[in-house]
Write a structure and sequence with these properties.
40% helix; 13 helices; 14% strand; flat; 408 residues; alpha+beta; three-stranded antiparallel beta sheet
């Protein structure tokens, strides 16, 4: 089949191009010995749980991934094969942007991301799949990736092993497959990358715990903490424990914690509650705000790009300024890291020039509408302008790198 029919081949051979994760194929390189990801091999699970619990932490991860994925993929339209890959990157009908978006989310969360590459011996088609990074571990030979759906209950028979790119290995279904491993470099870590926010894990934990504390206060109607002294005659320690448990189930909470103390009855009933009055609300708020700022710094990100300063006013100029800084310091370099192996794979497998592949970036807000003319924009900025200059007669949309219609 000629390469001009690649799109049809991808769409009609879905069973051949589905990712192998979760399947078992005999005759492949198998290795149940892997390099541990974290002390107990469960670090991705911990990082995932933290991202689900800490509000600010999750927002920053999502925003970074969204900005890195951009608003679309630009390519040389004179090469139809590039359009086929951009619009239909695999047999599941996913676009190349959707795959990059998932890779960017994994790398922002774990510092690692994995992409499966599928072709055949004739290089008649190419499919790219995102693989959940939490399911992947590097084999001890450092040449393969072992994939399993749940590393807490690992079974060799349920695992799948594929070679690391640029090596390909033939599978039982006749396809050639490989896995690209993206990772953020960290000294002393040669097998896995390290999440860029690693120094902010403590701040993320504090944010989660302060939120949890506030929820507990609401659940307990802002009850005071204290000590409850109970008078009562009991015949054994078992009876005393039972009485205390009954009182705890009825009255105690967190916060609003109550320490129950049971003592032998004396003349009269001297049961009483001794409150522990604390005025720590301001301290908790300060701790929360400080942790929030530390977490933004740990992520090497910007507050206005994650909506953290909207309560104090919506500053378009600040958002645009910080977006420009983020674009030139973080976003473009991350995008190039994502696209570099994809370009190389497309060129080597399909034999076409993929250098024109670029991610389209667009700021989150615009200070000037795109229907303004150049001279009108210069006038609004207090610059010299000439209404009769042909170049300044152009609309702003005409001088941007990509027309807004092609982006949308």
């Amino acid at each position: 089949m000629s390469r001009n029919k690649t799109l049809t081949r991808i769409a009609t051979t879905r069973n051949r191009t589905e990712p192998l994760l979760g399947s078992v194929a005999s005759g492949r390189q198998s290795n149940d010995k892997v390099w541990l990801w974290g002390d107990d091999n469960m670090l991705p699970y911990v990082l995932s749980l933290m991202a689900r619990r800490s509000v600010t932490h999750r927002r920053i991860i999502n925003d970074k991934a969204d900005y890195i994925a951009g608003k679309g993929i630009a390519f040389n339209e004179s090469i139809p094969l590039l359009g086929d890959i951009v619009n239909h990157a695999n047999g599941s009908g996913e676009t190349l942007r959707s795959i990059i978006a998932r890779l960017a989310l994994d790398e922002a969360m774990f510092g690692n991301a994995f992409m499966e590459v599928v072709t055949d011996a004739d290089h008649s088609f190419l499919s790219l799949y995102h693989v959940d990074a939490s399911t992947c571990r590097l084999a001890r030979n450092s040449e393969h990736v072992v994939m399993h759906h749940d590393w807490r209950q690992f079974r060799q028979s349920e695992s799948c092993t594929l070679p690391l790119y640029p090596c390909f290995e033939q599978q039982d279904d006749g396809t050639l497959r490989s896995v690209v491993h993206y990772k953020d470099y960290e000294p002393m870590f040669s097998h896995y990358g390290v999440a860029p926010y690693i120094a902010g894990l403590g701040a993320a934990a504090i944010l989660y715990k302060t939120d949890k504390w506030n929820i507990a206060r609401l659940d307990n109607s802002f009850q005071l903490s204290g000590v409850m002294m109970l008078d009562g005659a009991v015949g054994s320690e078992e009876e005393a424990d039972k009485m205390v448990r009954m009182a705890e189930e009825r009255f105690s909470g967190n916060p609003g914690q109550v320490l129950f103390v049971l003592r032998d009855g004396v003349e009269g009933d001297n049961s009483r509650f001794i409150p522990i009055d604390t005025s720590s609300d301001g301290d908790w708020q300060s701790l929360h705000e400080q942790s929030e700022s530390d977490l933004v710094v740990a992520h090497s990100w910007f507050r206005s790009l994650s909506g953290l300063d909207y309560s104090s006013g919506f500053s378009t100029e600040r958002i645009l300024h910080e977006y420009e800084v983020a674009l030139n310091t973080i976003i473009l370099s991350e995008q190039e890291q994502m696209l570099e192996p994809i370009r190389q794979i497309i060129s080597s497998v399909l034999g076409v020039d993929a250098s024109s592949l670029e991610i389209i970036n667009r700021p989150p807000t615009r200070s000037k509408p795109l229907y303004m003319r150049v001279w009108e924009a210069r006038k609004a900025d207090g610059l010299d302008y000439d209404e009769n200059d042909p170049n300044q007669q152009l609309f702003l949309s005409q001088i941007t790198k990509y027309n807004i219609q092609s982006i949308e």
